[in-house]
Fold this protein.
Amino acid sequence: MKLGKLALVVGLLSGTSAYAEPLNIVFTVHSGASNTFWQAVQKGYEDACGKLEANCQMVYVQTDGSAQEQVSNMEAAIARKPDALITSIVDNNAFDDVIKRARDAGIIVIAANVDDLEGAAGNARQAFIGQGFVPAGHSLAAAQWKNFPTTGPIHVLVGVSAPGQNWSEQRALGVTNFLDEQIAAYPDLNITYEKLDSGTDLATTSDRVGAYLSAHPETNAYFDTGFWHAGVARVLADRGVAPGKVLLGGFDLVPEVLDQMKLGYVQVQVDQQPYMQGFMPVMEVYLAKTVGLAPSDIDTGQGIVTPEMVDAIMDLSAKGLR
Amino acid sequence: MRRLFKLALQKPEMAAGSLLVLLVIMFQVRSDGIFLSYDNLRGILGFLPEMGLVAIGVTLLMIAGEFDLSVGSVFALSPMTMAVLMTMGWGFWPALLVGLLFAAAVGLFNGWVTIQFDIPSFITTLGMMFMARSMTVVVSGGFPPRPDFKLIPTELFVAYVGPGQMFRASFVWFVVIAIIIHILLSRTNFGNWVRATGGFLPAARGMGIPTARVKLACFVICSVLAGFAGVIQVLRLGSPLPSIGQGYELQAVAAAVIGGTSLSGGIGSVIGGVIGALLIRVIDNGMVMSQINSNWFQFAVGALTIFAVVGNAWLRKRGRAMKVETER
């Protein structure tokens, strides 16, 4: 599906059937511009827009995670009557009305990165391009499980980076779903887990999780719903804890995490391919406008990255492509 | 004795200090003695200098009667500038100097606009908060630069030092800077000018105090301390992310206020700001240690902020009302 669509786009782009008027596309997100992850999405978005010579704008919020600010940005975008609106949907209700109004105005609306928990039934958006967060959390925990001790008791800490936000809560849910399955499957292992508001800042996460590890030295693994466990790896190194004693895993490939993977402190990371989350919505808009193809869902992946893959990925990550 | 007690009650940092002692005891008990363990104390004392330096700068500026909401953004801008310059081949020291000069320039701009156009510093620095954060992203191109950390003398800033390797070098910087600012505030003409400027501006002007220059100096000191704190954090965590320091401006104001600094200027102390910063770190850390539901974290910080300020006001009132015998 993904490759077929990509081939069609490449074919159309190399042919002569380019859309007569430049497309106007707006991408609104729930993050501030300083989040490294979103810069990779923006790079994919701008590269795609560059190929189509489309007029594109990426709009960040000033207060990280502010759905209400994002809705205001969407309303401002709709007033300009763009061809398409791409947006992350971090709340199940807050975006319903504005998305409906955009669709009523004939604007293509595609969700990217984060979707309504109810999926297509949740609002009028036409497609979702991003990671399935619950399955991704599940995949992360399953991949890390191979490194767990074979004898119990086992204690796990799950860091919810942004309590109340879909992306973070769902990833945590995926992890805890997997742990619940193991608790049922292996009652003798005496598996327990706890959740913690771990924060979206390296310093805060390292301080809070460091405190937790002091109080619970029996902890075998820490899962972060973002990439802030890179700070926890530093705490472990400072305390002289050997790599692998406390297993670490999380999401997204940023250079800090890759450094810690090379050192052995982070064993597993899930890559959701942010570049693709910026690139593909633009291509879907192009297809919808030129040949009338309906936008469709694309799962940008639950790719598991392990330390032996780091060298190959490091260069791409630094360039914002992974 | 009674006279000493009255004086103590009137100290602006008294309530926060008492609360700090109470909380440390409570968290130590609730965590089965782990709160004051070696590893945990090292964690708290590792983070404290970064937040503490920002809080000292904000405290000084608030005593002078002004605010700075851009400190969180400057916290990111200075190290980012330094890191980008290093990836361009600059040495550590010149890159650090330029990073701190950027911070000083931000402070100077904040002060100049506030004084020249007679607008609230709350507004000037709110604008600068967004501008400096944006500059951080622009300077880095959105992606964290990767300077060669082997070229940085990190041992001067973040290496563990002292008995039992309990402290980082950053803690020594923090203590030295705190003492210098404390002396500046309490033992020099400049300190008197700062308090007079923040306490009652027209009177300070009438006395011939160069209030504009005093405020400018405080803006610059505040900004440079924030930039330096950011550099320390980046050296500690090895990662010049453009997002660091977000929300620190409010934590720093909260620390200053918890420590007894008056929102209307004129009153406050460096030790109060330090206690306030330490109190916030202790609360955050202690909540984790005590296994309190994490959904209550921000509630606790907020409630304790109000509690500390109310407690401060009450203690000062009691102190003033307390009668002591005068010598005949």
